[in-house]
Amino acid sequence: MSALQELLADNLVFNHIPFPIIIMNENGQTVWCSRHAERVFHIRSESVKGQQCPYMNPDIAALYKCSWEKIVNSKDPVRLEEVEVELGDGTLAYTTVVTKVFQSEKEKFILTIFEMDESQIADSPSRELEKLRSGLDASFMMLYFDEEFLITYANPLFLKLSKWTPKRILGKPIWQMFSDSEGDHQLIEEMMATLKAGEVWNGEAKKMRKDGELYWVDLTAIPIVLAGAETYYIFLEKDITEAKETQRHLEEIAFIDSVTGLENRHRLEQVVNEFIEEKKHFSFVFFDIDRFYTLRDVSNSDTEKELLIEFTKRLRMYFSDSLITRTGLHEFALVTPLSQWFIEGFLAYLQQHPIYIQGTAIPLTVSGAVTRYPEDQQTFVHLMKASHATIKKIKERGGSAISALTADDHERLNRKALIERRLVHALDKKNLELLYQPQVNLKTGDVERVEALVRWQDTEAGIVTPDELIPIAEENGMIHEIGKFVLETVCRQLKDWGSRGIPMNVSINSSIREFRDKDMARLFTEHLTINGCEANRLTIEITEKFALEAEAEHSIVRQMKQLHQKGVSFSLDDFGTGYASFRYMLLLPISSLKIDKDIIQSITQQEKIQKLVNGMIQFGKSLELQVVAEGVETEEQLELLKAMECDSIQGYITGHPMTVKELEAWLQRS
């Protein structure tokens, strides 16, 4: 390396090129700087040797939609536009950077040329904009989003206050910054619609730090529309959490909701805890107004207020001897001694006493949950959680009902809470494992591929199956970590099988939330390359719900097609249980479909189901798709599927999910 440095130091050509030049090794450490670079950046070549180059190190490279690995391994020059660099006087400039890899003494080096001249350093009109940007960067939390509302940049102030890291948020969708409540969804959709219309959006927004803590910002979102360039969006944020906390504290002191005159959530919690301490029996009733946002959209702010006031009057008339509180925009909670049948009668009471706004009857209904203390739950937090679980269940059935959780519901709720709590430890300790279930061709009897299934055996939760684990992981955001674990494990296993001459294909399951990460295709490709795996040995299984949502999101379709072009295939899983669309079957690169196991296991019970399965098989073949039947367990099911000319089967009749050792032993016996 010293010979190279001497060569560069004496090379007049490099020192007379009118652009700053910095040379790095393949780890991003500075090896040499030209005199022009020393002058522009106020550095000395000798003093920065061995240091990470602050303008083009591996972490910074990710900001410019180009991985460090691509820069290091590219045979051709790599050109990066609008790279932010800090000049010697502390101001920022934006320049084009060209990198070129060369070798000396069998080592790789990266020649980096910054296409900037003295006019960019001296005073010029562009410096005003640079100073403006620098001032905004220092004063506001700043985020950049691309046209699809994926994060492309986050400034240091945002990263510091939000506790996010570039790795966790770059390329992620706008939704990751917010909580998963209905109100937040509504706010984001309104914001995106405003920005797409070319207008500035300003208002208060509740956001979420990396650790799940909520904070408030005063947010100004600005669309940047440049001729001949992609539209992008800048978010400028001021942290107003302290002011909101002060406001909340004042509201807690007041205990009164200003619109309805009802006591609020803080008073509710206080009363419930008092009742629990006194061991009083009571019913905790939670109401959520159905389709509130639809009702609100057909009215203005004054009529919205009138709607809430009129609804409150009906609550007070019907539940006259109960504590009534307003706990959210359209949520109300009661503590009452009244019986279940009387509480359920509130729906009929609402129909008999409709709300009229400006002479028009408003079709208002509620979803209600009844949870008893101490029979059902024993703390305020658990009463709230049980209520939300009941409301969710009712709304999925269309709303307009009042119900209580059954004993089975409570057991599931408690187990879900246990799994969520233990899953964090499982991911930290990496004690998840993969099992593999074979998929057998009915004509040849050969194993075409194996499906990788996540299994987790916990000391407290016991065995947690994929059917139980994946929905919980999708809901709490841990699906990304599980997906990464599965991909890394499968790629390592394919590499191991390949080195031992075992020609195996593997399918893995993927979530729509994983593919909303715009780096998903790159992540797949990198793991295949690192492990020397052939892309055509990997199949990604997606559900009908995934396919239906992907159809409307261009970035997901694009990533699927990128992977398909590299050789990765896609399979439509659980076919027949969701909403099948001819459109997404034509739009998405799907090469096979798997008929759901519940349908297959009913195939011997009804002739109609046999006709249905036969129709599915013929439908798949008409689109030149391979058809797989899941959950095959009996000889009778197998014979029917053979007669229908189904391509392949997967189920206990051919093989259970197995560890790697069990699978290899099974293959030798087969």
TrEMBL record:
PROSITE patterns assigned to the protein according to its UniProt record, in alphabetical order: EAL, GGDEF, PAC
SUPFAM superfamilies noted in UniProt: EAL domain-like, Nucleotide cyclase, PYP-like sensor domain (PAS domain)
A Pfam family this chain is assigned to: EAL
Domain EAL: 416-670
Source organism superkingdom: Bacteria
SMART domains: EAL, GGDEF, PAC, PAS
Annotated PAC domain residues: 201-252
Location of the GGDEF domain: 280-407
Name assigned to this protein: Diguanylate cyclase
Naturally occurring in which organism (per UniProt): Planococcus salinarum
The organism's taxonomic lineage, starting at the top: Bacteria, Bacillati, Bacillota, Bacilli, Bacillales
